[in-house]
């Protein structure tokens, strides 16, 4: 099958939800032998320390019922070797947790819970398209291959180009459908006043200047700035601004 970019884009255009768009993607790739589809999106992909941040969107079609809980609530997303690899790549790649593969041989004990879960449900092989977005967000679209492990890995490799086109076309529509709350990083939570003070600090205002702008006391402004720095794990105001920028909590 050769996907026509314009035709596929036109098919997604009238669909009004991510779920509907993903269902259509799965319908399109099912004849290629893909049985399960996972999509995730994070407005900020990694913490300031470099650890993966749990995505704000995680959708799994034709997947185990507890997969969302495992990945988003119990920390599997952070130890998923596929996600770790995707965060460092810009091109699609095939992978397999089956015995005697490069991927299996590279797994550490930290990865084993994910590998065991995936293999137990017969989802040992797939391909993933990393999507590094212009606004700094990050998404992946992963399709799992049905069939014997050896054949499945070869099958995934043959369809990398097809999935690349589908994934980028899908993401163009998904970006239009993401809810405002899904676009916000919740890894760090600052109060409205803390964000406001940090925003003014990013623009170069001193605590005295911020106090005059907000009609608050300088002591109150300093309390908000200290609280923001503590939540961000920053040692000083300059580092707090830098981390606020990283998490897209402030703008310049």
TrEMBL record:
| Key words, A-Z | DNA-binding, Transcription, Transcription regulation
Query: Residues in domain HTH luxR-type?
Result: 183-248
Domain of life from the UniProt record = Bacteria
Gene Ontology biological process terms, A to Z: regulation of DNA-templated transcription
* Protein name listed in UniProt: HTH-type quorum sensing-dependent transcriptional regulator RpaR
Q: What Gene Ontology terms describe what this protein does at the molecular function level?
A: DNA binding
Q: Which organism is it from?
A: Pseudomonas extremaustralis
Query: Entry's SMART domains?
Result: HTH_LUXR
PROSITE patterns linked: HTH_LUXR_1, HTH_LUXR_2
| InterPro entries for the chain | Sig_transdc_resp-reg_C-effctor, TF_LuxR_autoind-bd_dom, TF_LuxR_autoind-bd_dom_sf, Tscrpt_reg_LuxR_C, WH-like_DNA-bd_sf
């Amino acid at each position: 099958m050769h996907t026509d970019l314009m035709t596929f884009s036109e098919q997604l255009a009238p669909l009004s939800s991510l779920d509907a768009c993903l269902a259509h993607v799965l319908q399109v790739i099912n004849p290629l032998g893909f049985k399960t589809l996972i999509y995730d999106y994070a407005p900020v992909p990694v913490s300031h320390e470099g650890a993966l941040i749990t995505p704000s969107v995680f959708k799994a079609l034709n997947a185990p019922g507890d997969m969302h809980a495992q990945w988003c609530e119990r920390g599997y997303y952070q130890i998923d070797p596929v996600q770790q690899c995707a965060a460092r790549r810009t091109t699609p790649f095939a992978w397999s947790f089956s015995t005697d593969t490069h991927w299996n041989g590279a797994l550490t004990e930290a990865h084993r819970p994910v590998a065991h879960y995936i293999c137990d449900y017969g989802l040992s092989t797939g391909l993933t398209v990393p999507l590094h977005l212009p606004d700094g967000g990050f998404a992946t679209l992963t399709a799992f291959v049905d069939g014997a492990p050896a054949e499945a890995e070869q099958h995934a490799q043959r369809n990398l180009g097809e999935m690349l086109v589908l994934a980028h076309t899908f993401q163009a529509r998904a970006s239009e459908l993401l809810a405002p709350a899904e676009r916000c990083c919740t890894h760090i939570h600052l109060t409205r006043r803390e964000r406001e003070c940090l925003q003014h600090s990013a623009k170069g205002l001193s605590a005295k200047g911020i106090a005059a702008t907000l009609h608050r006391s300088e002591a109150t402004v300093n309390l908000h700035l200290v609280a923001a720095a503590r939540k961000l794990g920053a040692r000083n105001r300059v580092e707090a601004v830098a981390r606020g920028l990283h998490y897209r909590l402030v703008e310049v």
